[in-house]
Design a protein that fits this description.
InterPro entries: Bact_Lucif_Oxidored, Luciferase-like_dom, Luciferase-like_sf. The chain has one domain (3-335): Alpha-Beta Barrel (TIM Barrel). It is globular, with a radius of gyration of 20 Å. The chain is of the alpha/beta class. The protein starts with a strand and ends in a 7-residue tail after the last helix. Helix 6 links the parallel strand 5 (182-185) and strand 6 (201-204). It contains eleven helices and 13 strands. The longest helix is centred in the middle third of the chain and has 19 residues, at 216-234.
C-alpha cells in the first residue's frame, strides 16, 4: 500500500488554450480538484507555492478552504519557500488551517527554488545576513518549528484586555500534532540528512541539485536511505515519512495520446541550476501496463511511503480528475499500491 496524492503548481494564463485563465480559476479549481480526488480515493492534495508568478502563492486560504470542503484527504504544500515567511505569523495561519481541516495538514517547506524575480524575499522585508539566503530560510524554519511545539514564550501584559492563562503565552491557535507533520523539500543527500536531524519528514521531488552519474531514481533512493539512517542516529521516537513526486501520465484514450504521446520517450536530464549540476527525473507516460513495468524499476518510488503525482492543472478539473483516476485504477493495483 502507498499513499497517493496529486501535486499542482497552480499555473494560470489568460491564453484561450488554457482551462485556467485567472488566479480565481486556479484557486477555485484547486478546491474542486481536491474534492474530486477525495471522491476518487486519493490520499492527498498538495499545492506548490511560487511568488511573483501566475501560479498558486499564498497557501493558507486555499488549504483552509480545501479542509472545509473535504473530510479525509491529506492537504499539503510542496513546498513553501521559507525565505519569504514570518515564522510566527505562519504558525498562526498553519494552526488555523489545520484545525479547520481536523488535523490533516502535511506542510512541505524548504529553502525554495529559483524565483521569478531577483531576491524576491527582500521585497517581503527579509534580508539575509551576509547574503546567505539559505541560512535565513533555515533560521525561519527553526523558529517556526519551535513555536509549533506549543510552549509559551511571550511575556503577558500585566493589564491585558482579556484574562490570560498563567505563565508565558504561546502562538494561538495551536494545533497539537502539526509539528510532526512538517516536511522539508530536500534537493541533495546532505540536506536530507539535515532534515532527519531536525525531525522533519522528507519531501523529494523530480529534481536533485547534484549529479553522480547514476540514474535519477537511484540517486534519490540513496538520498532516502541516508535520510532514514540519519533519522535513526538522531534517536527520534516516531517513524518518519518520505514522499517523492513523479509525472505519471497513463495513456488510456485518444485524448491522452494527443496530449502526451511525445512524453513516452522521456529520459532523465542533467542540467545546470544555480551554478551547479542538477539531475531531473523523467516523465512516465504510456499505456498502463508499460507504466507498471517502468515504475516497478523505480527504486525511489519503492522506498517512499507517499507518491505525489504532478498534474497539468491548466487542462482543467475534469481532465485532471481523469488522470488521477487512471493512476489509481489502471496503474496502482499492478504495483501493489492499491
Amino acid at each position: 500500500m502507498k499513499n497517493i496524492g496529486f501535486l499542482s503548481f497552480g499555473h494560470w494564463t489568460p491564453s484561450p488554450h488554457s482551462q485556467t485563465r485567472s488566479a480565481s480559476d486556479a484557486l477555485l479549481q484547486s478546491i474542486d480538484l481536491a474534492v474530486a480526488a477525495e471522491e476518487l480515493g486519493a490520499d492527498g492534495a498538495y499545492f506548490r507555492v511560487h511568488h511573483f508568478a501566475r501560479q498558486l502563492a499564498s497557501p493558507f486560504p486555499l488549504l483552509a478552504a480545501v479542509g472545509a470542503r473535504t473530510s479525509r484527504i491529506e492537504i499539503g504544500t510542496g513546498v513553501i519557500d521559507m525565505r519569504y515567511e514570518n515564522p510566527l505569523y505562519m504558525a498562526e495561519d498553519a494552526g488555523a488551517a489545520d484545525l479547520i481541516a481536523g488535523g490533516r495538514l502535511q506542510l512541505g517547506i524548504s529553502r525554495g527554488s529559483p524565483e521569478q524575480v531577483v531576491d524576491g524575499f527582500r521585497y517581503f522585508g527579509y534580508v539575509p545576513e551576509g547574503d546567505d539566503h539559505a541560512a535565513m530560510a533555515r533560521q525561519h524554519t527553526e523558529v517556526f518549528l519551535q513555536v509549533l511545539e506549543g510552549e509559551g514564550f511571550a511575556q503577558p501584559n500585566p493589564r491585558p484586555m482579556f484574562p490570560n492563562p498563567p505563565g508565558l503565552l504561546r502562538i494561538e491557535p495551536h494545533s497539537a500534532g502539526l509539528r510532526e507533520r512538517i516536511w522539508w523539500g530536500a534537493g541533495s543527500r546532505a540536506t536530507a540528512e539535515w532534515t532527519a536531524q531536525q525531525g522533519m519528514n522528507l519531501m523529494s521531488s523530480t529534481l536533485l541539485t547534484e549529479d553522480t552519474g547514476v540514474p535519477f531514481h537511484e540517486l534519490q533512493a540513496e538520498q532516502i536511505q541516508r535520510f532514514r539512517d540519519a533519522w535513526g542516529a538522531a534517536g527520534h521516537e516516531r517513524a518518519p515519512r518520505v514522499s517523492v513526486s513523479r509525472s505519471i501520465l497513463p495513456i488510456t484514450s485518444d485524448v491522452d495520446r494527443q496530449y502526451f504521446y511525445r512524453e513516452t520517450a522521456s529520459r532523465d536530464q542533467v542540467g545546470h541550476l544555480e551554478g551547479g549540476l542538477a539531475r531531473f527525473g523523467k516523465t512516465y507516460a504510456g499505456e498502463p501496463d508499460k507504466l507498471v513495468e517502468e515504475l516497478a524499476e523505480d527504486s525511489a518510488v519503492a522506498a517512499a511511503d507517499t507518491l505525489l503525482v504532478t498534474v497539468p492543472n491548466q487542462l482543467g478539473v475534469d481532465y485532471n480528475a481523469h488522470l488521477i483516476e487512471s493512476v489509481l485504477k489502471d496503474v496502482a493495483p499492478g504495483l501493489g499500491w492499491r
